[in-house]
Design a protein that fits this description.
Alpha-Beta Plaits, Rossmann fold, 3 domains, TIM Barrel, alpha/beta, about 550 residues, elongated, 8-stranded mixed β-barrel
């Protein structure tokens, strides 16, 4: 194994002549030498210089080699350091005493030069392996034990209690201020953690497990803090961290962190990380892992099963379009259909996207489902004269796979393209993104119409409506479903309709589930109606005239007469 010229040997012997002889024997090995005259001096120099190998004499004044080795082995840094004892003592009792103290090997005085060289080479190789191990168990920036060390410690314990902490917005600090500041923040946070738990007189071990992430392992939490409710403890710790201000060179940083208190699990760190991801997603400040982990695991298992279900449905061509009629209030007839995705289960049951679409996103099948739906819609509407609407999310618009498929279909089917309306979801992710408007501009080149779906929900933007001038605005179902009884819903619907009408934009009311709602939207002047009062989604394209039994029996009476 190739060695570095910086490999260091600490030679400990009370006789300077003996030290010189050993150095002379090893002079061609490119070692760096440190010398000590007794055991006490050896300990001080070892702590200061961290030698790779130690050659220790047995009998010395002040502190002999046996005691020095025993002391060094109590220090974490020297638990793996190779120590050779070179001594004139060769009796069995002395060797057993040295082994008990922690010596790795012996060289008898007077020594053979080649034996000394070969032993040092061998143990220097071991030292380098140990060095790599130590580096693998420490964070290179804070020098704290890392995730590997934590796992090993937890593996050796029957049970454990930890607090996992992640500095909020740590990646932003790294990106905005640079890596040097991020490292400074971590080092200062380590000092804070150490000082805080010392102030509580608690026995803890601290680990730096990931960038901006730390774990505090308690020696005995019940003994130290058993009198405090866990939620109170987490609140107290969170508030204390939040009150801490770190000075980073030329500016101050107000620290905050998200916490996960965890205990008793066989996979403690993994389960705590799982719960931590959840609490961050929920935008909370802390979580008691034991209160949520079983539910989270069950949800994950269910999601995995759903992903498998989606994958198999795609492979077996069981992703199908359903069509919900859209009623033209002015003409008094169905003039278009909205395409809705459905999954046919293995037993033939029809499954709503509510039960599988999120799982499809988690399993990276969502975009594939969109392309399947596009292909099937364009195939069907080659032979159907009606207009059709297709839902697209921001994910779809930003996907090269989806947009290439869509533009190919539009180009190959110009007659169908003119009857297609793309319903685009009013989504928070669209804010300040040119992808949305660039997409609209391009699809309009094919004669495609644009509808804004769920307008009036949380992220609706009247300014965007004026900017992109869609052909249709679909008023969110949460507004329409209460319109028959709620004055505010009526006012908001009227405002949206009046606003849209002034821009020559047609309005569509979703969730029209009763005759009362149907009459109210007609009274306001909404252009189109869609919902279970009109018809449920169906796998066959139907018309009011040919399949009246599929529609609410009151619709004929409620519809305006021509």
């Amino acid at each position: 194994m190739k060695r570095s010229v910086l490999d260091t040997i600490l030679i400990v012997d009370d006789l300077r002549t003996n030290r010189m002889v050993m150095k002379k024997a090893l002079e061609n090995e490119n070692y760096h030498f440190i010398e000590a005259g007794n055991g006490r001096e050896a300990i001080e120099l070892a702590i200061e210089h961290q030698p790779d190998v130690i050659i220790m004499d047995g009998l010395m004044p002040e502190m002999d080699g046996f005691e020095a080795v025993k002391t060094l082995r109590t220090l974490e840094t020297f638990k793996r350091t190779p120590i050779l004892m070179i001594s004139s003592l060769s009796d069995e009792a002395s060797k057993l005493k040295a082994i008990k103290a922690g010596v790795n090997d012996f060289i008898t005085k007077p020594f053979e030069k080649m034996e000394l060289i070969l032993r040092c080479r061998s143990y220097m190789d071991i030292a380098q392996i140990n060095s790599r191990y130590v580096l693998s168990t420490k964070n290179p920036h804070t020098k704290m034990p890392n995730q590997v060390a934590l796992r090993q410690t937890l593996l050796a314990r029957a049970s454990g209690t930890i607090v996992l902490m992640r500095i909020d917005h740590f990646r932003s600090v790294d990106a905005f201020y640079g890596e040097a500041y991020a490292r400074m923040l971590e080092k200062e946070f380590v000092k804070y953690l150490t000082a805080y738990f010392q102030s509580l007189d608690m026995m803890v071990l601290c680990y730096h497990t990931a960038p901006g992430e730390f774990v505090v392992l308690f020696d005995d939490f019940k003994r130290d803090m058993g009198h405090i409710d866990l939620h109170e403890f987490c609140k107290m710790l969170h508030e204390h961290i939040q009150s801490y201000e770190i000075e980073l060179d030329k500016f101050s940083y107000d620290v905050s962190a998200t916490l996960c208190f965890a205990s008793g699990s066989e996979n403690l760190y993994e389960d705590a990380s799982f719960a931590m991801d959840w609490v961050i997603e929920q935008k909370k400040t802390y979580v008691i892992m034991n209160e949520v982990i079983e539910k989270l695991k069950e949800e994950t298992k269910e999601n995995i099963n759903k992903v498998h279900m989606v994958k198999k449905a795609i492979e077996e061509d069981r992703i199908v379009p359903y069509f919900q009629p859209i009623y033209d209030n002015g003409l008094g007839e169905i003039t278009k259909y909205e395409t809705l995705v459905r999954l046919v289960a293995e037993d033939g049951k029809i499954i709503s996207p509510f039960f599988f679409l999120d799982a499809a996103k988690n399993g990276n099948y969502y975009l594939q489902i969109t392309t399947i739906m596009l292909e099937k819609v364009f195939t069907i509407f080659k032979y159907v004269d009606s207009e059709v609407t297709v839902n697209l999310s921001y994910l779809d618009m930003a996907s090269t796979m989806v947009t290439e498929k869509l533009f190919k279909l539009l180009k190959e089917n110009p007659d169908t393209a003119k009857r297609v309306t793309l319903e685009l979801l009013e989504d928070e992710a669209i804010e300040n993104d040119t992808v949305f408007e660039a997409f609209i501009q391009k699809v309009r080149e094919y004669g495609v119409k644009i509808a804004i779906d769920d307008f009036g929900s949380g992220y609706s933007n009247f300014q965007r409506i004026m900017r992109i001038s869609p052909d249709f605005v679909k008023i969110d179902g949460s507004i329409i479903k209460n319109i028959a009884t709620d004055q505010k819903s009526q006012v908001l619907t009227s405002v949206i309709h009046t606003f849209s009408q002034s821009l020559n934009i047609k309005t569509v009311a979703e969730f029209v589930s009763s005759e009362e709602i149907f009459r109210k939207i007609q009274e306001i002047g909404i252009d189109y109606a869609q919902g279970y009062f009109i018809a449920e989604p169906h796998d066959k394209l139907v018309t009011l005239q040919s399949h009246p039994t599929l529609f609410h029996t009151n619709l004929l009476e409620a519809a305006p007469q021509s």
